[in-house]
Specification:
By secondary structure, this protein is mostly helical. It is built from 5 helices and 2 strands, in the order H-E-H-E-H-H-H. Strand 1, helix 2 and strand 2 form a beta-alpha-beta unit. The N and C termini lie far apart (about 55 Å).
Length: about 130
């Protein structure tokens, strides 16, 4: 499994398609970009290697079902274990981060009570 976060262009689509050795490619895109991604893949003739083009909202809906839906007791644990394993493989330094964090004593830093940003205030207009 490879995960790439890229802004799609025709050149990039060709590069990814030719450099990825997997025979089944799944593209996840923003909802508004789905038609464009489909069109680019068809124009470049790489749609045969594309198993699916799914949107971020599809993923949110699927993960919500797996983690909170009626089948969560069956799916959630396996899903979370798979995500942990993939994360550890993709980010090997995550295995040593906690030791680094404690060695530097970052765990002793107290949480600030003040916000570091301004909250947006909802403006209402009365007529």
């Amino acid at each position: 499994m490879q995960v790439k976060h890229l802004n799609l262009s025709e050149d990039l689509a060709e590069d990814v398609s030719s450099s990825v050795s997997a025979d089944r490619i799944v593209i996840v895109c923003k909802d508004a970009e789905k038609r464009i991604v489909d069109r680019v893949c068809n124009q470049l003739g790489i749609s045969g290697r594309i198993q699916a083009v799914i949107t971020q909202s599809d993923l949110v809906r699927w993960y919500d079902k797996a983690l909170r839906g009626e089948h969560a007791n069956i799916l959630a644990q396996d899903l979370l274990e798979s995500l942990r394993a993939e994360f550890a493989d993709a980010f090997p330094s995550s295995k040593t981060f906690e030791e680094f964090y404690r060695d530097r004593q970052y765990n002793k830093i107290k949480k600030s009570e003040q916000l570091f940003y301004e909250k947006d205030e909802v403006q209402t207009s009365e007529r």
